[in-house]
Design a protein that fits this description.
Blueprint lengths: L4 H4 L11 E2 L6 E5 L28 H13 L4 E5 L9 H9 L4 E5 L6 H13 L4 E6 L5 H8 L3 H14 L5 E5 L7 H12 L7 E4 L33 E5 L2 E3 L11 E3 L10 E2 L3 H9 L7
Parallel strand pairs: 2-3, 2-8, 3-4, 4-5, 5-6, 6-7
Antiparallel strand pairs: 1-11, 8-9, 9-10
Amino acid sequence: MKRPLTVLDGRPEDVLGAPRAPFRGLTALWLQITGTWCNLECSHCINASGPTQPWLRPLDAGTVRRAIDDGERLGVKEIYFTGGEPFLHREILPLVAHALAAAPTTVLTNGIAVTEPVADALAALAGEAPYSLEIRVSLDDVDPVANDGIRGAGAWQGAVDAIRRLHARGLLPIVTATEITGEGRGIYERFRDFLRSIGIAKPRVKIMPVFAIGRARVSDGPRLSEEMLEGFDTDLLQCSESRVVAHGGVYACPILAGLSGARLSTGGLEEAFRPAPLYHAACATCHRTGMSCRNG
């Protein structure tokens, strides 16, 4: 399916004149394992994922394994599985095991497919692996009605069930929320208190800003310029130390995976070790907020 350019991409003409973020070394390798195939269709999804006709195709297992092996050879410090919904991939568990042999690994999920058997398998992988396993579960409101208005019917219960299952097995999930509700500074406290109320003794919460991309895009938004970056340390931008393997090549960051302006290579991972164009409105959000998709 042709990707919806008007929903997702920046203006193509902005790429040529955009400032660049120098590449300083591979810290985080992202694997867009299911492309934009997901079991939910969230109203703010940064890559317009959904259950039908994904515009960005999933990766085959061989491509994922080669990317992991390349990342290990090139000194990667962390590996992330994202999508779409990673747990829809039929080989997600053996691929996570492969990643855990190379580096600390995180899987981003909405939780719906984290059934009891899947939670058991993840706990077994974590117990046997030489590196740590993290699971990030997306939840956008502690209120079921408000959350499901954003993410779809049953999403709240699916996420909360996954959080409880993972916690019961000692995996201490990271709950990831987006500032779509506009609560500002109080959003972290609200999620922390909710997690404690359902028995999570040590809540872990990551708050993400809303990006002018995907289904949340209402306008093109501002673009970065060389003048705006004067005196700014571009090493703080995640594209200075992250690369994403997705269908079609290697991209600068997980927010822009699949977009031609962010594609740095159609071949191997190392070919993408070059400056990334800061051409998209999403780049301005990272610059303004200091946001990183990584766990920290």
